[in-house]
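Lecture notes, unit on binding sites. The following record was shown on slide 14. It pairs a sequence with 26V.
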Amino acid sequence: MAVSSSFLVTPDSVRASFLHYLRFQRGVEFERSSRLDHLTSLCLAVRETLVNRRLDTQRAWRRAQPKIVNYLSMEYMIGRLLRNNLIATELFEPVQEALGSLGLSLDELLDAEDDAGLGNGGLGRLAACFLDSMATLDLPVYGYGLRYDYGIFRQKIRDGWQEEVPDTWLKNGYPWEIHRPDLTVQVFMGGHVDWGVAANGEHQPRWLPARHLFGVPYDVLIPGFGTKTVIVLRLWRAEAPEEFDFEIFSRGDYLRAVEQRERAAAITRVLYPPDDTEAGRELRLTQEYFLVACAVRDVINRFERHRDGDWSSFPAKVAFQLNDTHPALTVAELMRFFVDEAGLPWAKAWEITTGVCNYTNHTLLPEALETWPAEQMQRLLPRHVQVIHEINRRFLDEVRLRVPGEADRIGRMSIFQDNGDYRFRMANLAMAGSRRVNGVARLHTDLLRRHLARDFAELWPEKFVSITNGITPRRWLLACNPALAEAITRRIGDSWPRDLDRLEQLRAFAEDSDFQDEVLAIKHANKVALAGTIRELTGVDVDPASLFDVQVKRLHEYKRQLLNALHIIALYNRLQIDPNAELTPRTFIFAAKAAPAYHMAKRVIRLINAIADTVNRDPVVAGRLKVVFLPDYRVTLAEKIIPAADLSEQISTAGLEASGTGNMKLALNGALTIGTLDGANVEMLEAIGAENMFIFGLTAEEVAELRASGRYNPWEYYEADPDLRGALEVLHRGALVGGDPGVLHDLWASLMHHGDRYLVLADFRPYLEAQRRAAALYRHRRAWAAAVIRNIAGMGRFSSDRSIREYASLVWDLPAVPVNGTR
Ligand code: 26V
């Protein structure tokens, strides 16, 4: 019998539970307890409500026997959870009161939580926003990922350079996770394939793996907002099996036994940064397979518990969503299972597999498209290699049947790249094996259809859908910007966090001077708060009345932080020449991590810090220009920067940013966008209106043409534009770095000698013009405020709830399962 006691959580019950964990989990007396003791005990007390709701959710799912979607991602950037969980469980106030009665401050505890940074950037944060929306929409979903001991590195800045420090987020234990050794699965690797004989006399391949290890799940509970549904993010940790070492132990080779254990556990040691360096890629493929093997086994175990061996109903009950190609081996793993273990005929296995897999593409950058060397695959997964070859053979036969005599097309569509460098193309495997393939913004999907997936889209147009990304308004407005959230609620009611389209009603207040004043005052207060953080992190004083110009995102050449930097140098140069020039006072705020092996990106960080050092110390520009680079960009820092931003820099070379999601977060918090027609900016423009954004630069089509023409010459722009020349000269001379031209030479060379791949020079002048318009509007406080309000009003469409509804209908065919919980 399930317990269904409707217990009320009160300040007293929270206090009792908190003190219970303090004593019996932490083993300390209240009088001697530390902040860590408090934080851990509080999280455990809050977790009780999550667990109760989870059990109610499971009961509802058991009754409904719904289809279940399994979201597979190598990355989840969930950040802190306490504030979010307090809001979702409606425990914020009782907890505040309970802690108050003990003389403790909730704010202090909230700020003591470490980020769970199990991701690199957009793709990982999107997965986290999606979990929030899936729970909020009562969708039966599991998230699957890896429990890395070390998440994304912590960034320090030393002498202007990035330094990477390991992220020891688990050092104090992680109170949100629930260790589930009972659900451990076995994972096999290596070895070779034997040809046995089946009952019917046919040859039957038998995989004889060289080693096996265990996947042990740790569950993180994700509550929906305004609903009782709680879903599970299941993170797997690799462990060596006991008997593994046992044999070696008995032979007396203790050290080797321990070494082998270490090797197995190393699989989930560290999150890979998005480097395209070859070294160390060995473990990455192992990680990808480990995730896939654990998740597929877990899904099959769950399916088998409910029905016995009738695999035909699998697609009615199961779907997989592959977050980029990283888990694309799911296609091969399912085929291997159905054919080798379940004994299904190939055609049936393929029908089922292609009925359950779906793939989301998140980038078209050629260097980010995953391919794996055939011999590496062969060493790790000899049976999967056979399976993929057979998938490919039959798949290409089908293509030949539909469009005979097109050898080139066959070459392009093959999963196996055979040009002397034998590799598996994971995007082709994902596209061949999926029922639906989607891009993450309209422009991105169009480009996907026309380029990377062209042949596939021609033959299977119905496979391709576009689902524009979104962000969760709970974390990215309600929680991070409570004052703005409240002001909005006072105007349009409190239903917007679950129904973001309601923001449209704010348009009526765009010219309302009371609301304008309120929005400006809230922004100012947020800027004052951020100024405090900036002072703490960098020692630099910034003026909250200045325009806060913000570019926060991963550092990549295509995102063009360098273009932003050149604009700053140009402004600085102008003030050097004419110290009395009219200038809207600005604070340029950057935060960005560079992949550790990304040479050019690291130099851009060095450049920005060099500009900051020069500009911030120069009395000539004091009061007009400040530049700060905030170290260690992560979810928690984003939550402080975004509510304080005036101008949002979304200036990627058109066609290269698949969607962007920071663009949405900033606009939702009342920043105006300066941006190119790239990614989701295009759709934001439609929703917000051209008068309320600063759009500039080449379109994706113009970029493609210019690049293809072979006629792009950065020197033409250099010669024609004195401001540009002046800015580039500063780079060239090494003026900002003590006159050493060597330090930043490679940046100069990338633009002037290596063809300026991202067309920084081509967009420089239009960018400056757009910046001028932004600065001018900022001086008209009312007009600026009206544009801010219209920006917020247009952001309804960019809720991740809308994205997830589209996945549920266009991709998963997944109805909601309401949970009638009592708590
Ligand atoms: C690639 C690799 C390759 C080697 C190992 C680690 C690693 C990690 C990540 C990646 C590619 C990440 C692709 C990505 O993050 N794309 C971003 O996805 C966002 C969500 O859809 C989107 O808003 C951004 O525009 C897009 O750049």
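Take-home: The pocket of 26V is lined by residues 120-123, 126, 272, 274, 284, 362-363, 368, 440, 469, 657-661, 679 (CB under 6 Å).
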